[in-house]
Amino acid sequence: MKHFAILCLFVLTVSSDLPAQVTWADDVAEIVYANCATCHRDAGIAPFPLIDYTEDVAPNVNAILEAVGTGYMPPWTADSDYQDYLGERLLSSEEVQTIVDWVANGSPEGSAADAPPPPVFNDAGFITATPDLEVRIPDYVSNASATFDDYVCFAIPTGLTEDKKLRAFEVIPGNTEIVHHALVYIDAEGDYETDTSGLCGGPALGLIGGYTPGGQPTIYPSDGQDMNLGVTIPAGSNLVFAMHYPNGSAGQLDSTKVRLFFYEDDTQIREVTTFPLIQDWEFTIEANAVEEVTAEWSYVPEDVSFLNVFPHMHLLGDYIESYAVTLAGDTIPLVRIPHWDFDWQEFYNFQNLIHIPAWTTIHGRGIYENTPGNPHNPNDPPVDVGAGLNTTDEMFLVYFSFLAYEEGDENIDLEELTQLPTDLNSIEWVDSGSMHVYPNPSNDILYFEMELERPSQISIYLYDQHGRLVERIADQAQRNAGMQRITFDTEGLNAGIYFYSVNLNGDLGSGKVLIR
To answer: Is there a smaller number of Cβ atoms within 10 Å at the N or the C end of the chain?
Structure first.
């Protein structure tokens, strides 16, 4: 079920005939691993991991119930009935009910041997390949005060002596506890200056993307042939990091960096531009009022394709949407966030490129609640709030990444073309305990070989670099004592690095494989 049912705890229905064995191992673990573990893991941005039942899950059962039952988790604010996006983090009502029934049944673990092997993550970032270029800000100590956030910009030379075509990039925050967001711009002329005044919002042009908590790398779709999206980074250019450190972060150190991955020099790319087509810097939200802000853009002289959308408001924001209306009067939905959450912002990548005909008007609409009833209102009592850079100010922006339209763009499934860059020539050899996995790298077949001392139950799951389940290679398979081998056909998998995770009689292990 695609639509997420927002269920309040007091109306959640607990079945009168609870399933006899609703357990972590058999029913709940796979839901949590698939939807929560990306953030709830060691070195993740969440306040606690949710991998190990005894150490992580059991102490946080009530927090899990509250977060899932109220719809606060997993974090996904866009209305997925309004538009289709990649990577939607949605639970079905059935999955929510499973968790509710599990807690009502005492949140039992079940048999540890029956639990799915947990996902495996690379804590240096999602992209395990060696970057072509890495650019890092100097060590910086936040100067945020008790009432003002710290907005600073660092202009760092790329050192490039020739133009490069950007295929992907990943921002790695130096301190996840204080980096509220980081925006990355290309300064083609190399003349934008570092600004640590605390009020720097970044250049007007050149944005390529950035980092927000929970965000993933920016991967430009590519089929490796004639459909390669990307951005040109000119020789002699700078990268500008526009950093936001919130109040309460004063005195803490950060050293954020960006890892850049390039196409081969002779690759032809379709150039992507990112810009806030919708913006308003002249509004004021009066105290004790609920007010609407609108803006529009209708200056696109040729057909374009939209790749993604990034809406932005601050603490008074309650609702934001953007849609397009063509000259023929057709409406194209782009993004709708019924319940704005300042703590969860991201670029929403469309499932397919969206065709925007020439002279289409792009509309934006935001609703702001500046009343005591808004629990996020930073002012008590409320005061008039205008547009500005501080978190206690307001903003109304909708960014879009777009490129010149080509016939058939709207039929391209972007998920198939959005793969993490992989170093296909080398891999760190990792074996899981007594299990031997070969050949590694593999072109067609993987063998999982082990010597068992007694009859055993084994599960082997294959995960991608995002921690998403790719294949259940073995699922509670029963094997006799002695040498055992499980064969897996890798045909149909995209080339890249994958992680295998093993549960052998309740003992866990993992490793890394390369599929060519």
So the answer is: N
